[in-house]
Amino acid sequence: MEINREHRVENLANKSIDSRALFALEAVEMGIWDIDLTDHSYWCNERCRQLCGMSSEDVWSYKQLLKSLHPTDRLRLNTRIQEALTNPAQKRFDVEFRMSSENDQTESWFYGSGQVFFDTNGNACRLTGTLQKKTESCLDQQTAVQRQVEVEQQKLVAILDVSHEFIGLAGVDLTIQYLNPEALHMLGWDNWQGKKMLDCVYIDDLPVAQKALAEIWAEGHSSLEIRFVNTRNKRPFWLHWNIAVVRDSSSDAIIGLATVSTNINERKKNELALRESEERFRAVADDSPAFVFIASPTIEIEFFNKTFLHYVGLSLHEIKAATWKQYTHPEDIQRIQVIYSESVRDKKPFTLEVRQRRALDGEYRWILWKGIPRFGCNGKLLGFMGSGIDIHEHQLTAETLKFNESRFRTLIEEAPVATCLFVGRDMIIEVANEIMIGYWGKDESVIGKPLAEAVPELIGQPFLDILDEVYTTGLTYEAKATEVQLEVNGTLGTYFFDFTYKPLRNDAGEVYAIMDMAIDATEEVLAKQALKASEERYRRLTADLELQVQQRTRQLQEFNEDLKRSNENLQRFAYVASHDLQEPLRKVQQFGSLLKNRYAANLGDGSEYIDRMQLAAERMSKLIDDLLVFSRISTHREERTVVSLPDLLQLVINDLELKILETNAQIFVGALPTVQGDRTQLGQLFQNLLSNALKFHQPERPVKIEIKASTLLFTELPPGVKPIRVSRAYQCIEVIDNGIGFDEKYLDRIFQVFQRLHGKEEFAGTGIGLAICEKVATNHGGAITASSQPGQGATFRVYLPMQ
Questions:
Q1: Which CATH number does the domain housing residue 743 bear?
Q2: Are residue 407 and residue 441 in the same domain, yes or no?
Q3: CATH of the domain at 62
Q4: What is the CA angle 50-55-61, rounded to 5?
Q5: How big is the CA angle at 300 (ends 295 and 301), to the nearest 5 degrees?
Q6: Tens digits of per-residue pLDDT, 473-513?
Q7: Whole-model pTM?
Q8: 406 and 365 inside one domain
C-alpha cells in the first residue's frame, strides 16, 4: 500500500515523534525509518527512500531493504535486529553494510543505527532507526580495510577449500551459509544453497542432532560422534561433529554456527572390525581347548577364556577381583616377574612353566604358558597375551624321568665295570664313568663330544662302524678279547677288551642311544698268548698228559653220572623210605595207646615210658612228614598257574586257626599281589613262615604278625639277595613278627636242613621248615632272607621275580 507524505507526517506526529528532531535529521540528509510492530505499518522519510534507491511512488518495506543489501551483510544485519527484538538488554544496535542501487547496480556503504521499544508487558512494539551514507574519506579508509579483509578472507577460503575436514557455516535459523568442497563431497551435494543443517544428518541420528543443536545456544559448543548421509549413494558416514556458536565481534551477539569436523568413517569401520575381530577372538578362544589370556602391562588379567575359567572354577569377575599372585605358587612369583620383564625388555615371546591353584580342589597344578608382549605404534607397552595348557601329568612324568635318568646316570658312574652312554648317531658321549675314561686315557672334557672327536685314534678301526650298525639295526653287539689301539698317556698301545654295545629305545621304539660296557681283557689275552706259546713249546711233552686228562675227564663224567643217579635214587629212597617208616611208627603209636588204655593199672611206672615212646614216635612222624615234603619239593614240579596270594594266605590262616586262637595272635594282612607259581609249594612256604612266627613267640607279649608286599627293581635288591632268575623287578613279600628273634650270625644256618637254634625241649620242630621255604623260593626263581635281633622279633622276606 502506498503511503503519501501527509499520511506519513501525520502518522509520525500521531506517534509523538518530535517534529524538530525530524526536521533536524532531514537537514543533515539522514534517512529515517519507523516500523510499528503492532500493525506492521512502515514509514520512512524521503532521504531514506533516496538512499535505498526508491521513488516516491515505491512502497517501502523491511524486506525490500534486506533485498537491496549485499548478501554477505544481509545475515549480519538481520541477526543483529533479531537479537534486539528478543533481548531488551540489546535493544540498541549499530551496523555497517553495503547496499546496491537497482538502477546502476553500484554498491555503497551505509551506517545504520536503531532501537527497539517495548510495551509495559515487555513485548517489542516499535522499531525506529536512521540510515546514513558514508563519506568518501570513510569509504576510502573502509575500502582499504575491506580489501585487506577480503584478501585475508580469500586466503582463509583457499585454506578451507583444500582442507580435508568438513567445514561449514549456518545462520541462527540453521540455514547453511557455507560448505567447503570436502564437505560437499562427503554429502554428495553440488551446492549448499537453500539447505538446512539437519539435511546433512542421517535419519536414524536426527534425534541426537536435534538434541545437540537445542543445547548449543546455552553451552556455546558441542562435540559428538554422529552419522551424516551421502545423498548420492544413500550411505551414512561417521563424523566427529564439532559445533560452535559464532558471535559478532563488536556486539558479542550470536550470528550463527560453525563446524570444523573430521570424517571418522574409516576409524569407525576399523573399530567395528576390531570389535568383530575381538568377538571372533573371544568366540574362538572360548571354544579352544587351550587356556587363553590377555593381561595389562602390570600383569593384571583382563581376559581368560571359558576353558580356563571352568578349569580353575572361578568367574572372570572373581579373577579380576583378586591378583594373579593369589592363585600362583609363592615359589614361582619372582621367576614370573623376571621372565615378564625380560620379555618386555627384549620384545620377545616368553615361555612359563608355573604352578597355579585351582579353586575347585585347591590343588596346585603345572601349567605351560606361552605369550608375547603387545606394543603400540609409539612403542608403549599395551599388555600381554598368550595361551597355555595343563602339563601337570607331563611334569610329574618328567620329574620321574629326571629322577630315573639321574639314577641311571649314577648307576653308570658307579658301575664296577667300564660303562658309558653314547647318544644319537654322532655318538655323543652323554655320560662315562671313571673306569671308561681311564681306558681311553682321557679326562672328563670328553663328556658332550662325539666319540670320534674325543677318541680320534678309533678312526680307521671297526668300532665306529659297529656302533653305527647297532644304532641302525637296533641289535646288540657283543665281542670278546677284541684288539683296539688306544693312546694312553701320550703313547699309542694295543689293548684287548670284552665289550657289549646295547641299544636303548625311546617310547616310540626308536633307538636313541647305545650303552657301552667293557672289561679290560689285556692281561688275560696276553696270558693266554703266553700260555699258547708255552703250550707250543711243551706240546710233545704234554701229549701223554692230555691223553691222561681226557681219560680222567671221562672218568669224572662217569663219576658225575653215577653221582647224579645216586642222588636221584637217594631222593626216591628218602621218599619211599619215608612212606615205609610211617607204617611202623603208626603201629608203635597204636600199640602204645592200646597198652596204656588196657593195661594202665598193671604198667605202673611203665606208663611214663609209653608216653615218652609215643612222643618220640610223634616227633619221628613229623620229621618224616617234613622229609616227604622236602623231597617232594626237590623232585616234583607242578604246572605253574596264576596264584592269588590273598586267597592262598586266607587258606593258610584257616588251617592255623587253632594255633592262632591258642596264642591269641593278631595277623595283619596288607595288599598282596597275584603271582605265577606252584600253588601247593607257595602254600607250604607261607604255612611254615606263619607257623614259625606263632611258635617262636614271647609268652609275656601278645603275638602280632604282619604280612605285606612291595615291588622292587633289580637295582633296588639288597646286596646279599641273589635270586635264581634275573628279572627287571621282583615282588617282595614280608612276614614280620614280634617274637623272640635270633642273632643274625646264625642267618646261614636257619635255612639248612635239620639246623635248629633252640632245643627240642624248648621249642618243638624238625628243623626242616625254613629249608622248605628256601627250596620253594629257589624253585620259583627267587630268594629268601631274614633280619632279626634277639628279643626284637624277626622279618622274613621272600623275593619272587615278576613276569
A1: 3.30.565.10
A2: yes
A3: 3.30.450.20
A4: 80
A5: 55
A6: 999 999 998 999 998 888 899 999 999 999 999 888 899 99
A7: 0.32
A8: no
